[in-house]
Amino acid sequence: MEFKCDCGNVYASRGNLRDHQRRFCRGAGEQNNDCPYCNISFAVYRGMRQHLRHRHPQQYNAEMEEEVESRPMRRGLWTEEEIEDMAIAEARVMVLSIGTW
Length: 101
Fold this sequence. Notes:
This protein is mainly α. It contains 4 helices and 4 strands; from the N terminus they run E-E-H-E-E-H-H-H.
């Protein structure tokens, strides 16, 4: 016998279906997280995000790309002068290891 969730997932036992519904789909949870693309509801945000990654990967990836692009750029850990100094120091070590400086 198969136990089918409203989201389309199928389970071999009623317990597995209940566990899935508690963790991912509406049923046991009070919080409502709807998929914006196919109107499936999830009890927890994590379940909805997992659904998006697997069922709507193009839309999910586009959202992630927008989010990354909208983040403010952080300054690098090193200044240009520090990077130059490190490059010179590395070059000296390389030359000294060869024996000609």
